[in-house]
Amino acid sequence: VLSSTATGTDWVAAGSGSTVYTAAIWQVENDIFTTDNTTIICDTTRIYNGTTSVSNAGATSGSLVIDDVGVYEISYSVSVRVPQSGAPSTRQVPALYLTETRPGASEGKIPGSVNSAYLRLYGSNQGGFTSFSNKVYFAITTASTEIQLKIVWLDGTDKDVEIYSAAGIQNTISIRRIT
C-alpha cells in the first residue's frame, strides 16, 4: 500500500497494520412480493467472494451472516416494477430496508437503511418501474450477526412489487468490512 506525501510529489510506504477489505457481493433474487416486512432472498448466489467474511445462514433463508465484529459498509441496488399480470389498480409506495439480528437477540432495523419510491401503475405512460439503492455504515458488535433485506409499503397497504433484472443487470447486496 502506498500513500502520498503532503505535497503530492512523492510516494512513501504506508504504515504497517493497514488492512483493506474487499466486498462480498450477493445477488438479490427476482421474485414477487405482496406482504409487508417480507425478507428478500439474497443469500443463494454469491457473485464476488471478497475478503470480508460473510456467509449465508442457510440457502433461501434470506439472511447473510457477518462473521466478525467491526464497522461495515452495506449497500444494495434493486430494480422493481409493478407485475405485468395481476397488477394492482392503485399506486404504491414500497420501501426496502435492512435489519440485523445478533445471536440471542431480537431483530432490529438498521438506521439509515430505508429507501422508498413512488411506484405508478403498470401500462402505457404510467411508469411502473423504479429502483432502490442505499449505502449505510453500521457497527457489528457481536460476531455472527445476521443481516436481512426487507420490503414494506409506506402507504400502509400491501400491494404487488416484482424484483427483476432491469436490462439484464443483476440486483445486488454488498457487504464490506471497514475496520
Write structural notes for this entry.
With 179 residues, this protein is mostly beta strands. The protein has no helices and 16 strands. A hairpin with a 6-residue loop joins β1 (2-4) and β2. The two termini are 16 Å apart. The model has no long low-confidence stretch (mean pLDDT 85).
Instruction: Give the percentage of residues in beta strands.
Output: over 45%
Overall form: globular
Number of discrete helical segments: 0
From the alpha carbons, calculate the radius of gyration and give it in angstroms: 19 Å
- The total beta strand count reads 16
- pLDDT averaged over residues: 85
Secondary-structure element order, N to C: EEEEEEEEEEEEEEEE
SSE class? mainly beta
Helix content: under 10%
Helices and strands, with pairings:
Layout: E1 2-4, E2 11-13, E3 24-28, E4 31-33, E5 38-40, E6 46-48, E7 54-56, E8 64-66, E9 70-81, E10 94-101, E11 108-109, E12 115-116, E13 129-140, E14 145-153, E15 161-163, E16 171-177
Antiparallel strand pairs: 1-2, 3-6, 3-16, 4-15, 5-14, 7-8, 8-14, 9-13, 9-15, 9-16, 10-11, 10-12, 10-14
Features:
seven-stranded antiparallel β-sheet, 179 residues, 0% helix, globular, 16 strands, mainly beta
How do you describe this structure in short?
With 179 residues, the protein is mostly beta strands. The chain has strands spanning 2-4, 11-13, 24-28, 31-33, 38-40, 46-48, 54-56, 64-66, 70-81, 94-101, 108-109, 115-116, 129-140, 145-153, 161-163, 171-177.
